[in-house]
Design goal:
The chain has 113 residues and is α+β, with helices and mostly antiparallel strands. It contains 5 helices and 3 strands. A hairpin with a 2-residue loop joins strand 2 and strand 3.
């Protein structure tokens, strides 16, 4: 019987992998982003230097206040957004650490130049 050679694609990966906890936390973030309105919210926040009032998302997204509040809660619970109460209004900003972690997961070295 002939022994098969091990080819490169079957060799162990020499990169670090996520722990189970890190993978679960990251999956929560991707689940939170799995809605077009939430992606738009993240985009609005990413293109603003300052925190954005919750009231500004309604006209920007064309959604009712209750729907916007739901989407902001999902993103905040996932850790993507930070919430600051100013009087009766809530202001939101992106959590830079979480975005950096997500960015590192989807960065493909062969495509980055």
């Amino acid at each position: 019987m002939r022994e098969l050679e091990l080819i490169d694609s079957c060799r162990p990966l020499d990169v670090e992998t996520l722990s189970d906890d890190e993978a679960e936390a990251t999956a929560r973030i991707f689940r939170a982003l799995a809605d077009p309105a939430r992606v738009k919210i993240v985009n609005v926040l990413a293109t603003n230097d300052d925190a954005v009032c919750a009231c500004e998302f309604m006209p920007a997204l064309g959604l009712a206040q209750a729907t916007v509040s739901h989407h902001l809660k999902v993103l905040t619970d996932a850790g993507l957004l930070s919430r600051e109460q100013r009087g009766k209004w809530a202001y939101f900003s992106l959590d830079a650490q979480v975005l950096a972690r997500v960015g590192s997961l989807v960065q493909i070295p062969e495509l980055v130049r």
